[in-house]
Design goal:
14% strand, 11 helices, two-stranded parallel sheet, alpha/beta, seven-stranded mixed β-sheet, globular, Rossmann fold, single chain
């Protein structure tokens, strides 16, 4: 297994996908307690540091662990504070995590760097953060390339676009993974996985309900996600008030808040709120609030409820034996903030090839 360090590791979706492609995350850094606990439970061989990246001396840590070479360093620093990155105000707390990521690269000298962020990262703050990232990685000896990748193209039942920046040490050559799935099947690709493909083996739920008995698996994706699990977990629904029950009952197939009568329609809202998912296409981007009907499109295609925690996990590509620590709100936040597992796996496979066959 190749050695990886996962920064801002969250619940571990990126590390999980990379593990399927031959990487072992030897160190993970995550400041949020519930997220870190989830990572520890599902990646027991990883040293999980529940602290700020700024409190980690990577040189000292690698020496202590007797690790001479890190093959991959990956992570996605929160982008809210990147507004002054281009001015290199390294002590500015708003963008300190960006510079801490680069410090980690400098101290660990990985053979490959994987930086992931929002789809609009390249133009964020007039390109200051992206341009600075590329120039700083160049200064550290890395050849850099970037693409905006859609998780649905790599087997996720979800349309989720992320900016991926890859830096490789001189002498190495990286190519982004070829698209494996498209809207319609071709000679070279499979058809996109739909929401139905992902979750149709889970039983119906009423309001304030749960069910731990699977239906029969209907496709390879469901069988793969279930592994050897016999009891369905985290499949639950909320207890809605009468007004919400009426709202949910009135949202038609593929409908939204626009289909509600005036008396039930909020005075101000986005057009994709109180919106029902289309069963026959990939889900839109799963957010931290996918269990809340008033959030962006997350109402079950056929049932009058938002997605359950396990349904959200399935759409992100977490197998059913993946355990999430914390409250339901915390679990949904962890899932919503994740890198889709299949996207991580596809990237990992190309990075593995870069490191092993050159």
């Amino acid at each position: 297994m190749l050695k990886c360090i996962d920064l801002f590791s969250g619940a571990g979706g990126l590390s999980l996908g990379l593990s399927f492609s031959g990487f072992e995350s030897v160190i993970a850094v995550e400041i949020e307690k519930d997220f870190a606990e989830t990572f520890k439970i599902n990646h027991p061989k990883t040293m999980v540091l529940q602290k700020s990246i700024s409190d980690v001396n990577f040189k000292t840590l690698l020496k202590k662990l007797k690790i001479n070479q890190i093959d991959l360093l990956c992570g996605g620093p929160p982008c809210q504070g990147f507004s002054t990155v281009g001015k290199k105000q390294e002590k500015d707390k708003r963008n300190s995590l960006f510079w801490e990521f680069l410090r980690a690269v400098k101290e660990t000298k990985p053979r490959v760097v994987l930086f992931e962020n929002v789809s609009g990262f390249k133009s964020l703050y007039k390109g200051a953060a992206f341009d600075t990232l590329v120039s700083e990685l160049n200064n550290l000896g890395y050849t850099v390339q970037s693409e905006v990748l859609n998780s649905a193209d790599y087997g996720a039942p979800q349309t989720r676009k992320r900016t991926i920046v890859i830096g490789v040490q001189k002498g190495l050559s990286f190519s982004f993974p070829e698209i494996l799935f498209t809207k319609e099947k071709t000679l070279f690709t499979k058809k996109y996985l739909s929401i139905n493909d992902a979750i149709s083996d889970m039983p119906s739920l009423g309001h304030n309900d749960s069910n731990n008995k699977y239906l029969k698996p209907r496709n390879d994706y469901q069988a793969r996600m279930r592994k050897s699990v016999k009891t369905l977990t985290e499949h639950n629904s909320s207890n809605y008030g009468e007004r919400m029950k009426e709202i949910l009952s009135l949202i038609p197939k593929n409908g939204s808040v626009k289909d509600l009568p005036d008396r039930l329609r909020p005075k101000s809202c986005f057009g994709n709120t109180y919106a029902r998912l289309d069963a026959n296409i990939p889900s839109p981007t799963i957010t931290r609030n996918f269990g809340t009907p008033s959030s962006s499109r997350c109402i079950h295609p056929f049932q009058n409820r938002a997605l359950s925690t396990r349904e959200g996990a399935r759409i992100q590509g977490y197998p059913d034996n993946y355990y999430f620590f914390g409250s339901k709100t915390s679990k949904n936040l962890q899932i919503g903030n994740s890198v889709p597992v299949s996207l991580a796996e596809a990237l990992g496979a190309e990075i593995f090839n870069t490191l092993n066959f050159q």
